[in-house]
């Protein structure tokens, strides 16, 4: 099962993990990307995300397919948040189940790196003085 989504509002981590758990799998690997309060010595107060949703979802499904071509995994969930994301809240979760941990861990690393490189989602940092900076992914 591949489950992808772009949402506004908080990501429910427990429900996401419940989607990937499988009786035939001994591993669930997760990545949770959260808003930190600093960047390059500046105080960050929130992030703001925008996305071209139809293309973003298409690319996320392509990543799921690439993962399945490389590793034996059971379930994949990728959820990215758009809109305002306060400090300490999650902007993305990826969860992958597999029979053994190596596959899900390797697939997880590939999935987040590829998502950041090819999915049309843009991040703006907002600083305490209300100045802003659009961030480009280095991937």
TrEMBL record:
Would you tell me the protein name for this molecule? Answer: Molybdenum cofactor synthesis protein 2B
The entry lists its GO molecular-function terms as:
molybdopterin synthase activity
Q: Which organism is this entry from? A: Lottia gigantea
A GO-annotated cellular component: molybdopterin synthase complex
Q: Which Pfam families match?
A: MoaE
**Keyword entries, A-Z:** Cytoplasm, Molybdenum cofactor biosynthesis, Transferase
A GO BP entry is: Mo-molybdopterin cofactor biosynthetic process
């Amino acid at each position: 099962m591949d489950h992808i989504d772009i949402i506004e509002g908080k990501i429910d981590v427990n429900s996401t993990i419940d989607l990937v758990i499988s009786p035939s799998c001994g591993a669930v690997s997760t990545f949770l990307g959260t808003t930190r309060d600093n960047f390059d010595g500046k105080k960050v107060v929130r992030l703001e995300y925008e996305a071209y949703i139809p293309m973003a979802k298409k690319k996320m499904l392509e990543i799921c397919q690439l993962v399945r071509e490389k590793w034996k995994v059971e379930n994949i969930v990728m959820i990215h948040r758009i809109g305002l994301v306060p400090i300490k809240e999650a902007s993305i979760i990826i969860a992958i189940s597999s029979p053994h941990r190596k596959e899900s861990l390797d697939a997880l690393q590939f999935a987040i790196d590829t998502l950041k490189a090819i999915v049309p989602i843009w991040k703006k940092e907002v600083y305490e003085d209300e100045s802003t900076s659009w961030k480009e992914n280095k991937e």
